Amino acid sequence: MSSVFLTIWRKEMIDAVRDRRSLMAAMSYALFGPLLMAVAFLVLIKDVVSERDVRVHIDGAEYAPALVEFLESRRILAGNDEHPAQDIWLTIPEDYQSRLERARPIPIIVRSDYSERNLQSQRSRLESALREYNQTIAMHRLTLRGISGEVIQPLRVERQDTATKGSRAALVLGMVMVFVLMSVFFSGMNVAIDTSAGERERNALEFLLAQPVATHILVAAKMTAAATFAILGGVLALLLIPAVFLFVPLEKLGIDFAFSPMDQLVIALTLIPLALFASILQLFVSFRAKSFKEAQTYISLVMFAPMAAVFALEFSRFEHPVLQLLPVTSQHHVLFSTIAGQPIAFIPVLIGGLVTLLLTGLLVWVVTRMLRSEKVVFGL
C-alpha cells in the first residue's frame, strides 16, 4: 500500500514541478508577502521617526510674531517659493495682540481637508504645537498673577509602559505572520486544482481510477502532493521573513524581532496538519466544480473564509479557548504566541492539530465517495 501511495505521490509531484506556472505561483506568494510588509514597515518607520519640516500657509503672521517663532522652533514653517506650503492654512486674526493683552479668547483657524490622510501627521503636529503654545500662555498668565501654574494641573499622569519588545513585535508584526498562513493556502492551490479538475479535463482522472488502486489511496496521494507544495510555501515564508526584516530598522519602533530556528521548526510542524486540511478542502471544491476555470473561481471564494477569520482575529484581538482547538485559528495562535515570546501551551496545540487532522480525514472520506460517482468523474 505504501509503495502505491508513494508512486502516485511521485507522479503528481513530477506533474506539478513540470508545470512552471504552478511552481512559480506556489513560491511567489511566499516571497511576495514578506517583501510587501517589509516595504510597508519601511514607509511607516520613515513617517513616524522622521522630523521633517511642515510647510503651511500662514495668514496674518505679522500679527503674532511670537507664535510664528514658537511654531518655527517646532519645525512648522511658512511656505515659500523654494519650499511650497501644503494644503494646510493657519489663519491668525488682526486683533490677536489686543485680545492677548485683554486675556480674551483668540480664534485661531486651522483649515484643511481632514479627509486627506497624507496630511494627517502634519495637521496633528500643527495642532499639537498650538495646544502647547496655548498652555504656555496660560501658565505665564497665572505666574504674573502670583498663582502657581500647577493649580491648573491637579493630575500629572506619568506613563509607564510595561510592554516587552516581544509584545510590541506581536502587536505590529502579527500581520506579517498572517502571510505564513496565507502561503499555506495559496501555495498548493494550483497543484490541487490541476490534479483534480485539470486531470479530469485531460481525461487522465478516468484512467487513474481504472487502475487497481484503492480510491482513498489515490485521494490521499493527491492531497499529500498539494500539501507538499503548501508546506513548502509556508516554510519558505518562515525563512524569508527574518531575512527580509534584517534590512528593516524595527529597533526605531522599539521592536526586537527575534525569530530563532527552534521557533521556525515549531511553527513548521504546526503547519503540517493545516497544509493537509487546506489541500483536501481545495480538492473537494475542485471535484465539485464542472471545469478547471470554475474550480479556480470556487476555490478563490472558499479561501476567502479562513483568511477573513484570521484577519478578523488579528484586528480585533479576540481570544477564546475554543479558538485554540480549531483549524486555522489554532495555528494562528501559535504564530502569535511565538512572536510575542509567550510560552506555547502544547496541549491545546496538539488538540488543535488533531481536530484539523480529523476534519482532513473526514474530507478524504467525502472526496473518496464523490469519486465513485460518474457525475464527478466526468464533470457532468
From TrEMBL:
Keyword flag Aminoacyl-tRNA synthetase: no
Pfam family, one: ABC2_membrane_3
GO cellular component terms given for this protein: membrane
Transmembrane segments: 23-45, 169-192, 204-221, 228-250, 265-285, 297-316, 344-367
Protein's cellular compartments: Membrane
Keyword terms, alphabetized: Membrane, Transmembrane, Transmembrane helix
This protein's record includes keyword Transferase: no
Domain ABC-2 type transporter transmembrane: 31-365
Topology with respect to the bilayer: Multi-pass membrane protein
Primary localisation category: membrane
Gene Ontology terms for molecular function: ABC-type transporter activity
InterPro entries, A to Z: ABC2_TM
Name of the protein in its database record: ABC transporter permease
Organism: Aliidiomarina sanyensis
Organism taxonomic ancestry: Bacteria, Pseudomonadati, Pseudomonadota, Gammaproteobacteria, Alteromonadales
